[in-house]
Design brief:
Elements: H1 2-6, H2 11-14, H3 20-40, H4 46-53, H5 56-67, H6 74-92, H7 99-120
């Protein structure tokens, strides 16, 4: 909006009147999401909140398929299923016992050991 003002364009008068209701709806949805995110911080951990929030493209694709009849390509569907399963696994597991961290450190340790052996050859 600031760039439009610099160019001397008033965004409120250049917006067609038939699009103002849509823009108002987008504003209401955007503000609602921000308020719900802030309210949910008291209910779930921030790390889980971010993971759930990042599923936004998934839900956008699903809703555009139903409301706008936009096709979902097979490769997109496979990617969406894999990502959604990963989010469900992450969201439903309790990593407080640090087993995942131990596994990641073990894998990194093995990778660096293999690299050191290759360098010595």
């Amino acid at each position: 909006m600031g760039l439009l003002a610099v160019k001397g364009i008033d965004p409120f008068t250049t917006l067609p009147s038939d699009r103002r209701a849509i823009m108002l709806g987008r504003v209401i949805c955007g503000v609602s999401v921000s308020l719900l995110i802030n309210a949910s911080l008291e209910l779930i951990p921030f790390s889980l909140l971010i993971i759930l929030y990042q599923t936004n493209p998934f839900w956008t694709s699903v809703l555009s398929f139903f409301f706008n009849n936009e096709p979902i390509l097979p490769v997109e569907l496979i990617g969406m299923i894999l990502c959604f399963v990963a989010v469900v696994v992450i969201a439903t597991n309790d990593y407080s016992d640090h087993d995942m961290l131990d596994a990641q450190v073990g894998v990194l340790n093995e990778l660096t050991t293999v690299e050191e052996q290759e360098v010595q050859l």
